């Protein structure tokens, strides 16, 4: 990323460096280029999950269980079979081999700019002197010796990702007691015990505060996800609010991602009400169409039709509506091109998966989402275009570059001219609308915001070869800077609207070029 920043700074009027976003300092002035941290955090994410690297899943990496004669229900099954000392040897060998340098090179070449890294609390605490005491009274406490070297490997993964200009979303995949009844939360038995214990909930919040504190130093960490796929208990929203308050109370401006627990309508509205310039919240929705009886009975062509961009299908309407409400602060944190055999009856499997996979990719790039993360990078066994990104891209099930538009052609055209044309059209629509509502004025703040948003979009494209994905949050940040630099606070909403519309106009130009 630094090589791109050097190129960017030479193109912009100001060469002043911006304060680190992790310092808790105000965002940079309007004349400063985006910081490296901001480029990672705000750009549109083309991503993949690194499943079963740290948080093990028996169906993705069965050999580690089979070779040791352990059930595949959860990682705990492996530990109970091996004991702490042998488990450490087995786990460290797996951590050192599951994702290697060749994988990072391949991801970068495919246009991947962000990875989602599933972790559990026991991957952090045993190797963290400042928070190891939090392992007490947890299910994994007696197995802590197996994990003392886990965190140093997580840090190495973050640093390797940075070498390839890849951002990392840290995902708390397993909490004490388990936040859901699935084995990927770290426990077998099907019980979401986190929600039965106030002590475990308090401890989980302390763990999240510690986790954010550990990763805050890395400019390529794009955010921390508070819980993966939690059971939608009556405590979930309250837990989120308490966790966010605790993290922000430590002065952290880290973007915080929250799972919607498959209630996108509710959590989109809630997150929109909570977010502000100093509170960057992203909603994570997981979209699969292969698990329920209704999924099984729906043909692949119909699944694809329902999410086709602009088609008015229910999946498209759900995504585009939530993305608009959240100003882009929505990601599809897990999705796949997998389908149940019932959806494939009478159809060629490869072609059906291609239609389904590419319809999703088009929806995620065109609906206004901030990004998407395929599940998953790799799995053991025969090629699987439904669940393995390697296979899906190699077989053409997914489009090249994960559907991201190439920005080179747009940047090589008359960018200022396109910006002026887009600004004139946007300004006319904005002024006419508000004048008709009796809010007459010169609307200069809108024009200034549009100019800023277009300039910022060009900066992101030049520096990171990416669009701004989280447009609403970015516009809020810029509006705050505009007020601090002398703008009329009463007109900040117009500046924000202009900035957001410019970002959307730049993306539209990129998609059409």
Automatic annotation (TrEMBL):
Cellular component annotations (GO), alphabetically ordered: cell surface; cytoplasm; extracellular region
GO MF terms, alphabetically ordered: glucan endo-1,6-beta-glucosidase activity
BP term (GO), one: glucan catabolic process
Region described as Disordered: spans on this chain: 1-36
Compositionally skewed regions (Basic and acidic residues) per UniProt: 1-12
Domain of life of the native organism: Eukaryota
Name used for this protein in its record: Glycoside hydrolase
Organism: Jaminaea rosea
